[in-house]
Design brief:
- Among the domains are: about 1-90, Serine Threonine Protein Phosphatase 5, Tetratricopeptide repeat, CATH 1.25.40.10; about 200-295, Tetratricopeptide repeat domain (Serine Threonine Protein Phosphatase 5, Tetratricopeptide repeat).
- The chain is mainly α.
- The chain has 16 helices and no strands.
- Helices cover about 70% and strands about 0% of the residues.
- It is globular.
- The chain has helices at about 5-20, 25-35, 45-55, 60-70, 80-90, 95-105, 115-125, 130-145, 150-165, 170-180, 190-200, 205-215, 225-235, 240-255, 260-275, 275-290.
Length: about 300
């Protein structure tokens, strides 16, 4: 972890570089004000500095300013200008911009027309630079034939690369490959559990939920309902609705945890409020039985 003294020294160095009209120095100084690194956060100042770096053609600054314009951080929201800068940054080969623009084309975001073939090319270019999240998206493209012919072997290879690079989604998807099998790779429940755990440690909601299911059913690991409940609780903290439902079931039956009908109801209602079918059904039933909200 960087000490306050080291951080302050870096800020001083970036400021000195910026004074010498270095586009890299300006970009890094913009990050400093954007994140509040040893200085008070100042999004407006960050945007001003990033604009200077953009004028000097820095692709990282273009990507960061694009983000600020997209979210209205330190400046007025401007989706058109945001997209323009992102495209310029990607055109200069900046990995983060390539990845984000790839997502836009893959999912039709930010007013961009869906173009799976274009998305694939962008993910590939970013992946070749070692961008972890792009590797995961590239693997998805190979697995599901998005913009490229289905190739399970290539999908597995890129999931493994994304996993090795620490991308939690890549780790999770690799776990699914081992859980279900992919191409010529046979299912390996123990390996899947190992990967669910690794992804869960990085806060992946579905990985935590699936790990809980493995513990509950003894899949790839010794059956342990208490550990299952622990996993469900962690998944709930990260917003997984299936975990709300499974945790509610455990609380109703006292499986792995002391029975608590009131808490079980709270989890089912929470799931229903977020669109989970089981939660919705329970919420309707609960409303019929208890029409008075205070009950």
């Amino acid at each position: 972890m960087v000490s306050d003294e080291e951080a302050a020294s870096k800020v001083h160095h970036y400021a000195k570089m910026a004074c010498n009209s270095s586009s890299l120095g300006l970009t890094l100084l913009g990050y400093v004000y954007l994140d509040g690194l040893s200085v008070e956060k100042d999004a407006h100042r960050a945007v001003e500095i990033l604009r200077e770096a953009v004028e000097k053609g820095n692709p990282a600054a273009k990507s960061s300013l694009s983000y600020c314009l997209e979210r209205g951080i330190g400046t007025k929201h401007d989706r058109a200008q945001s997209l323009c800068l992102l495209q310029e940054s990607a055109g200069q080969g900046y990995a983060a911009a390539l990845f984000k623009l790839g997502c836009y084309h893959q999912y039709g975001q930010a007013g961009v027309t869906v173009d799976a073939a274009k998305a694939f090319k962008l993910f590939l270019e970013a992946s070749q630079q070692g961008h972890p999240a792009a590797m995961n998206q590239l693997a998805i493209s190979f697995q599901h034939g998005r913009g490229v012919a289905v190739d399970d072997a290539e999908a597995l290879r890129w999931y493994e690369r994304a996993s090795a690079a620490g991308d939690r989604d890549g780790i999770y998807h690799l776990a699914l490959c081992f859980r279900n099998g992919i191409g010529e790779t046979a299912p390996d429940d123990a390996r899947a559990v190992e990967l669910y755990r690794k992804s869960g440690e990085l806060g992946h909601p579905q990985a935590l939920y699936n790990l809980g299911c493995c513990y509950m059913n003894g899949v790839g690991v010794a059956k342990d309902s208490q550990k299952a409940v622990e996993c469900y609780r962690k998944a709930v903290e990260h917003g997984d609705m299936d975990a709300h439902v499974n945790l509610a079931k455990c609380l109703m039956t006292g499986d792995g945890v002391a029975a608590d009908q009131a808490e079980a109801q709270r989890h089912l209602i929470a799931a229903g409020e977020n669109g989970h079918p089981t939660g919705i059904s329970f919420a309707k039933f609960h409303k019929m039985v208890h029409p008075n909200p205070s009950m």
